[in-house]
Automatic annotation (TrEMBL):
Keyword Transmembrane: yes
Protein name (Swiss-Prot/TrEMBL): Signal peptidase complex catalytic subunit SEC11
Principal location listed in the UniProt entry: endoplasmic reticulum
Source organism (scientific name): Cerrena zonata
Physiological role: Catalytic component of the signal peptidase complex (SPC) which catalyzes the cleavage of N-terminal signal sequences from nascent proteins as they are translocated into the lumen of the endoplasmic reticulum. Specifically cleaves N-terminal signal peptides that contain a hydrophobic alpha-helix (h-region) shorter than 18-20 amino acids.
InterPro entries with a match to the protein in the record: Peptidase_S26B
High-level lineage: Eukaryota, Fungi, Dikarya, Basidiomycota, Agaricomycotina
Record gene name: SEC11_2
Topology term for the membrane: Single-pass type II membrane protein
Length: 97
């Protein structure tokens, strides 16, 4: 998706009309890169390619740069995750309401 979108960007998708037009940035759900098996397990039986009508997640209508790093930090850093949960738990116990 680079150079348009970087890791950590949050994308806003629209999926009302499943047909994409030329020039649209589309999002499909695939397995990813550098996997031991190929992506054919994601397709329906005897389907050698992604189908635009059924496999299209949506088209990108907007994005917020760098905001997704909060989620990445919580997911990839165990100490930060449990520290944040601890702070939230202590603050809820100490609240007056």
């Amino acid at each position: 998706m680079e150079p348009a979108f970087q890791r950590g960007d949050i994308l806003f998708l629209w999926n009302r009309d499943s047909l994409a037009k030329v020039g649209d940035v589309v999002v499909y759900e695939i397995q990813g890169d550098n996997n031991a098996v190929d992506d054919l397990g994601l397709y329906a039986k005897k389907q050698p390619y992604l189908n635009q009508k059924t496999d299209l997640v949506g088209t990108v209508k907007g994005y917020l740069p760098k905001l997704g790093y909060v989620t990445i930090l919580i997911t990839e850093n165990v100490y930060f995750k449990y520290g944040l949960l601890g702070i939230m738990g202590i603050s809820s116990l100490l609240s007056n309401e």
